[in-house]
Design goal:
Layout (H helix, E strand, L loop, with lengths): L1 H17 L15 E6 H4 L9 E4 L8 E2 L4 E5 L5 E5 L13 E3 L2 E3 L6 E3 L7 E3 L8 E7 L2 E5 L1
């Protein structure tokens, strides 16, 4: 029984250490302050319909911070809000921002396509080995707050 348990544990350790998963990889996008508040009804009524998103490339007032390349705020198909940095993790340049078409964000430079419709940000097509950098979204009434 001890040999069997030892074999199972060694096999499990080997399998887990050999996985090439980008979930635990550190993002190549530099850390930058993120603190942004948005009134959905007044500033972004689009975000009241699942599958829609907005890109924010400039803070709307002093004291608001939008990350490295800007913010992408999405209302997912699962009725949850998600926020990502607009910077492509493959290019990791502030001036190369992903463009959104419903549930996918695509980099105009490298062509990498990321899933944003369900909040994963994972690359499902293209060169990127990293997902989009994701931020925390908290909803209070009609307000969304995005933080790192």
């Amino acid at each position: 029984m001890k040999k069997y348990l030892y074999f199972v544990l060694c096999t499990l350790l080997l399998v887990l250490s050999s996985c090439d998963s980008n979930i635990n990889q550190i993002s190549p996008i530099p850390d930058a302050p993120v603190s942004y508040t948005l009134n959905i009804l007044r500033d972004a009524p689009l975000l009241m319909t699942p599958g829609n998103s907005i890109a924010i490339t400039e803070p709307n007032k002093q004291g608001q911070y939008i990350g490295y390349g800007g913010l992408l705020i999405c209302y997912g198909l699962d009725d949850k809000y998600y926020a990502f940095d607009l910077c492509c993790p493959h290019e990791h340049r502030r001036d190369v921002r992903v463009e959104v078409d419903m549930i996918f964000a695509t980099c105009p430079e490298c062509g990498s396509q990321f899933d944003v419709g369900f909040g994963s940000g994972f690359c499902n097509k293209g060169e990127s080995k990293y997902p989009l950098k994701r931020y925390t979204v908290t909803r209070t009434g009609d307000y969304l707050r995005v933080t790192r």
